[in-house]
Amino acid sequence: MIGDYAKQKQDCCAQVLADIVAPANGKNFRTIAGLFGYTPVIDPFARVAVNDRAPLIENESGGVSAQIDIELPGATLTSISAWRFWNWTPQGDLDFIPLSAPSPRPTMPTGKTSTVRTADRFDRQQQGRLCGRALLL
């Protein structure tokens, strides 16, 4: 059985504007920002970052896996099962301007896998290469 776990808390980073692209659909950022009384600083060397929330990201992940080998006459039956999780919680300024935009929702996916395979004597003689049959459940 093998397992791992990691937890990170990043209190980091802000973005400075280097350039703004004006899309063909007419939704120009400078014009829209001006409607709200905001004039963006578009100079990365000015070292001006505008955040209306503290930049914080929490990340937690881990998992376990187990392998069972059963020796059969002339072959080995191997079963590998695993489970993983990932909890990602971003909390920060989504747009890097003084307009309040909510951060994305937390992501908390989990996954399970199981594999059953056989390897006969010929397969084991191929320096560990699996040439046998595999079934993914």
Compact overview of the structure:
By secondary structure, this protein is mostly beta strands. Helix content is 8%, strand content 42%.
Q: SSE layout and pairings?
A:
Layout: E1 2-10, H1 29-35, E2 56-72, E3 75-91, E4 110-120, H2 121-124, E5 134-136
Folded structure, characterized:
Helices cover 8% and strands 42% of the residues. By secondary structure, the chain is mostly beta strands. It has one domain. It has a five-stranded antiparallel β-sheet with strand order 1-2-3-4-5. A hairpin with a 2-residue loop joins strand 2 and strand 3. It starts with a strand and ends with a strand.
Q: What are the salient characteristics of this protein?
A:
137 residues; mainly beta; 5-stranded antiparallel beta sheet
The largest sheet, given as strand count, sense and whether it forms a barrel, is:
5 strands, antiparallel
Overall helicity: under 10%
Which stretches are low in confidence, meaning pLDDT under 50 for 5 or more residues running?
126-137
The neighbouring-strand order within the major sheet is: 1-2-3-4-5
Tally the helices. Answer: 2
Structural class: mainly beta
> What is the percentage of strand-forming residues?
35-45%
Total number of strands: 5
- Helix and strand pattern: EHEEEHE
Cα shape: elongated
Please give the radius of gyration in angstroms.
26 Å
Number of domains: 1
Terminal CA distance = 19 Å
